[in-house]
Amino acid sequence: MPSELWIVQFPGWLLVFYLVVAQCTSALSYSLGVRMGTQEPADRITDVGVAFFKGFAGADLVFYVPLLAIGLVGHYRNAAWSDVILGGALGITIYWPIVCLWAVWAAHGATGWDLPKEAQYWVVLPLISIWGAVSMAVMLGS
Length: 142
Description:
It is built from 5 helices and no strands. It has 142 residues and is mostly helical.
């Protein structure tokens, strides 16, 4: 478990913490997320962009964050069921950043779309997907 601790567990819990602060809070109050700087204001990304980001925040709150946290706990405890749960969460971890980046790319230049911190998306989201893929490979190899 030592290498898995540093490859899977530590970054996984950092991601859970980040998602609770940035996404789950925004699912409950998008305007709070905007004030915290973790979400984009409607005047920069349109109401459709806000709806898109609210959709991800809501799904993170009710499904993805609990699934990832339960999977990480089970993985740490070496529970028999943890590979299925964490594997599902890691699949989502690979998928959702790609969806978001594809949407950011597709919206580029659209009327009303002016993502203020776009460069951050292109740095952070690929790292999250890569972590998900590497963690999945580590799990398959153990």
